[in-house]
Amino acid sequence: MNTLRNKVQLIGNLGMDPEIITLPSGSKLAKLSLATNDTYKNTQGEKITSTQWHNVVAWGKVAEIIENYVVKGQEIAIEGKLTHRAYETAEGEKRYVTEVICSELLMLGK
User: Fold this and answer.
1) For 28-42, how does the pLDDT look when each residue is reduced to its tens digit (9 = 90+)?
2) What is the pTM of this model?
């Protein structure tokens, strides 16, 4: 059961081209925004689609694959872990961020 701790699996579409950052050490960091859709019927029987946006971060080889093969609109499946962090802006405002740290990637579709 330990392998189930803090495990996230998502299938969705990229909302924009990934942002790739090359660190001074030469390793890569990829940031992307993934949209997942949930469809249900309301009390009137109308089909409703709810879209959730997820911030995803990938490092190293996974980031290099994203840089070379993943583009806006593409459907992908990811697996990783959920993280939360906080930072302070230049104006002194505290901001909170929830991200999925991607450890595995599967490209879907055509």
Assistant:
1) 999 999 999 999 999
2) 0.84
